[in-house]
Amino acid sequence: MSQQSAIPFEREALDSVLKRRFFFAPAFEIYGGVSGLYDYGPPGCALQANIVDTWRKHFILEEDMLEVDCTMLTPYEVLKTSGHVDKFADWMCRDLKTGEIFRADHLVEEVIEARLKGNKEARGIIEEAAEEDAEKKKRKKKVKEIKAVKLEDSVVEEYETILAKMDGFSGKELGDLMLKYAIGNPATGEPLEQPKEFNLMFETAIGPSGALKGYLRPETAQGQFLNFSKLLDFNNERMPFASASIGKSFRNEISPRSGLLRVREFLMAEIEHFVDPQDKSHASFHEVKDVTLRFLAKDVQSAGKTDIIETTVGKAVASGMVDNETLGYFLARISLFLIKIGVDPARMRFRQHMDNEMAHYATDCWDAELQTSYGWIECVGCADRSAYDLSVHAARTKEKLVVRQPLETPLTVTRFEAEIEKKKFGPKFRKSAPLVEQWLVSRTECELEELAKEMAANGKIVFKVEGIEEDVELDTSFVVIEQKTRTEHIREFTPNVIEPSFGLGRIMYSIFEHSFWRRPEDKDRAVLSLPPLVAPTKVLLVPLSNSPELQAVTKKVSAILKKAVIPFKIDDSSASIGKRYSRNDELGTPFGITIDFESVGDFSVTLRERDSTKQVRGSVEDIVAAIKEVTYNGATWEEGTKNLKAFETKVEEE
Amino acid sequence: MSQQSAIPFEREALDSVLKRRFFFAPAFEIYGGVSGLYDYGPPGCALQANIVDTWRKHFILEEDMLEVDCTMLTPYEVLKTSGHVDKFADWMCRDLKTGEIFRADHLVEEVIEARLKGNKEARGIIEEAAEEDAEKKKRKKKVKEIKAVKLEDSVVEEYETILAKMDGFSGKELGDLMLKYAIGNPATGEPLEQPKEFNLMFETAIGPSGALKGYLRPETAQGQFLNFSKLLDFNNERMPFASASIGKSFRNEISPRSGLLRVREFLMAEIEHFVDPQDKSHASFHEVKDVTLRFLAKDVQSAGKTDIIETTVGKAVASGMVDNETLGYFLARISLFLIKIGVDPARMRFRQHMDNEMAHYATDCWDAELQTSYGWIECVGCADRSAYDLSVHAARTKEKLVVRQPLETPLTVTRFEAEIEKKKFGPKFRKSAPLVEQWLVSRTECELEELAKEMAANGKIVFKVEGIEEDVELDTSFVVIEQKTRTEHIREFTPNVIEPSFGLGRIMYSIFEHSFWRRPEDKDRAVLSLPPLVAPTKVLLVPLSNSPELQAVTKKVSAILKKAVIPFKIDDSSASIGKRYSRNDELGTPFGITIDFESVGDFSVTLRERDSTKQVRGSVEDIVAAIKEVTYNGATWEEGTKNLKAFETKVEEE
């Protein structure tokens, strides 16, 4: 589409259209706004609803997933168990004089980058407009000016090493870096307080006593895990199966930026696919194995490169680059979905998490990243989370979250087990006895093996239990840990979870960028080439004039469109036809129906296609049928209108 | 449908089906649950999605409303202005010994009712199982036993007066009643702390500093009001128009009860119809004027009665019972919507708010109430809120939230105006000067007239301004308030708002009750007669056996249903056909397709209708077409299947 790239992309031009057409706007704007909170206006809201609807059909309906709708309010205990209370945090540091708060890692990175840039300027090295990644570009605001100061070679090297390791620093380390390199408030140069951990969840109290601490969920996943047993039952105990959920999640960003890309309240769509850890094949894998994706593998990144491997999902799984069929299946399905709703495949890649980036329990993880003017944006995560989530909730609640399958032939199994002398625990540990017992029964096979070795070596085991201050010491009179051999008739296992997780706001913004262009003949005429399927409104009805005859036809056509449940708008303003169409090009409306005086006689109308501005003419019935074909049945404009007459007009230039 | 009412309704039987089929369940159940929070399982979630979809089509699409999606997180200032910070509260009282917390009004009412009941028992008066209203029945748990104690006649009279005035008591008055009548903790008899106000909004802090106080919205309306000017602009300045929003709202109930009827997180759908205060006619009123509704008018209630007036909306508006056409239009549309999604019209009424029940600014307000085993439940509110919301936000933010219309003929207007001597305010009031000025400019016409009178009488005006401790005193050297006459070319007005507001969870629960029945031949066979349009799943595919030939046909039929985007499930378990159908009757699935050995030969199948268990036979194509007709195009079973052959079978009894 060379026409569409004739005028270079400018973010300001897009932002101006999105604002003018009320796709979205800062929430509470008349009150001065609250950063990181946005309201969607009618076209944004309709686009979002259509994307959600497409998602529901593409994933839930097509694959028979079990959709659930769980509460956003979540009690402390659940998120303590999931790890969010302890780990869902960023490091912040405060300027005690001005009260300003900075996100520590972003600040250090930004200041160091600015200094490196200043060094290059001082040395007279001209920076190429290198592709920068999203995270960096977004944060450009704190450091207002780059000073051309030359740095020692050794310092440059140190700085570059720091940047490379940026994602791995602890709060203490960030604080040390700030001291060592005199990184303070960029505006004043004043030193800042040492970094403190800031939990990103919104906290609240549930109920009148204030005693039940709760949070707004940071993801929709936990509700799905907690309902696992009910879902398995609903699915008649069959495995594998997937649950899914669409809903708002919350993240109390330290300093939100970049419009819809980093916000405090956002719509997510998440799938939890529960699978047998011993069999991660997928029954429909053959349907997607030939889908070609652009992969950025972890070993490529570890080598400091960003080379893309373009290959089919089938080959990617066969070669072991993608861990298993189910994961591969979802990568392909994610790609098909994103393309369906308007993502440019050339600006989509699947980036694998590097080993140090992944949670310790994860087996493999890929992000669908979309390229925008902010860089490559993580829009969909697709992780194999192993049995982590179900295991921790089961351990905490003592509810079994497992699958039980009858074995065709009984199995003889040898396994480490801890046999607890319960009677002795009460007298020794009193109130804490259940904690110690619980600790023992929640050990994994591996941990038990280690404990057995320790016991054999020292005659006792020593360990820490959360909630008990002193070390716990047990000898064999309290617990015997040894291998036992049993015959099992039932196989009981905790399913693994493969989790495709969609950030719909980020996807939506990327689609805006991917579908935005301006007509070469007039750069003020912007177009959003949203696919008809997700476009907020499908048709603009344009009567040529405001005469009563045309009004009557407009009314009749409206009734037909309403009956066909095709979202449309009427523009009977006095603006020229060209102006009216151009307004709706900005809204991404794919079709226009012009009602003219000929329409009064034979009830024929003209249909205009947004991107090409081509027009065809036919009876209202045929035109509506064509709109339906192209919008909902995947036909191209050419296919959908092949029986209609081409129509020449000059109104576009008016 | 006498068959459907042959076995009397039992709430326990319905609850058991809803739980067993995972329509919904207590959230965080494996953690012990949190009262007032529920998760929707797959059928509940699908039913909810279908109701939302129907709502969107019925209201937004059909009437071209402007849908917005605003944030749930809301800063303090917005809800302070709207009145929620000060008034969205209940009275609670605490038992200082046990820590228990009671909602004061519910407690007083409940204890007094129990005493009156005990009195009747003591006097040997047999209580008839009178219809009780929902609020009462729900709260029955606190008072565990009724003691047969005779009361003095005078006390009975006092008690009855108290009950009649129950909704109007202040916290102080409730506290006095508790002291006077020795109302304490029903379990122990111990006295309680005096009632304290408990705000029902969930509070949180936005951003890292903790300084920006926020709440979870208690309704979706505020976001719509705040975006009024953008919406008016989007609508090309045309009036009237409506915005709409579907989303979660929150209410931190003191003690939630009654399943889905009183919860802490719930889905709402709200419309804000902005209308010229001088013209509340509605362009489509003629389309609904003949719709008959069951009205419970305010004067009937004031007279202590509940007689229903059954009449058309046209007559209700003409007689003045319903204040205006737009309000009447929405009452009719609400009724049509509720019936479409499965509400029993005989168990629906529109109850008008009594004058002392309505907010001071409201012109008229009607609730669509649905009758359930908990009594009559308020499910949709429909209020004419006058210009209140836009006015208060405009006054607070100094942003004009008005419509400006050119006048065809200029108008001469005489109005009270306050002319402020700005220069004198600074020296006298210092920092508080803007507060005083703001107070003056936000007075209404009426208030200005009063102030003018006060000034004329006393030579000064004295008033209180929020944020200033002392009274403010001004004489004519500071402000002149008098009538001015001007010629206006533009009419500027603040629109009035008519607000239909739907509690979707309550509606859903009512539909469960309205559609639940048990087959007379076997009361364990329960049916949810949900309309096909909103039923979670439309079709159950039932292969007669698990043979490969039938599996192949099942696969083909599945593909056809998928292509037609008809939500279906396959049940190829080994249970009998009868059992499989009966399981799906409980899920409200309206159709079943049986695949038998004849299907292998001629690709014909049997279609079963859930309520009548009638069956017809035909080709898969014809059967799918019939399903589409009945489900999405409003055809009855008879109309949809008129070209299909009736089919007799005995499988139901298996």
Automatic annotation (TrEMBL), chains A, B:
This is glycine--tRNA ligase. Belongs to the class-II aminoacyl-tRNA synthetase family. It is found in: Cytoplasm. Residues 191-520 form the Aminoacyl-transfer RNA synthetases class-II family profile domain. It comes from the Eukaryota. GO terms for cellular component: mitochondrion. GO terms for molecular function: ATP binding; glycine-tRNA ligase activity; transferase activity. Homodimer. It catalyses: 2 ATP + H(+) = P(1),P(4)-bis(5'-adenosyl) tetraphosphate + diphosphate. Keywords: Aminoacyl-tRNA synthetase, ATP-binding, Cytoplasm, Ligase, Nucleotide-binding, Protein biosynthesis, Transferase. InterPro entries: aa-tRNA-synt_IIb, aa-tRNA-synth_II, aa-tRNA-synth_II/BPL/LPL, Anticodon-bd, Anticodon-bd_dom_sf, Gly-tRNA_synthase/POLG2, GlyRS-like_core, tRNA-synt_gly. NCBIfam families: glyS_dimeric, PRK04173.1. Its EC number is 6.1.1.14. One of its GO terms (biological process) is mitochondrial glycyl-tRNA aminoacylation. Its main location: cytoplasm. Pfam families: HGTP_anticodon, tRNA-synt_2b.
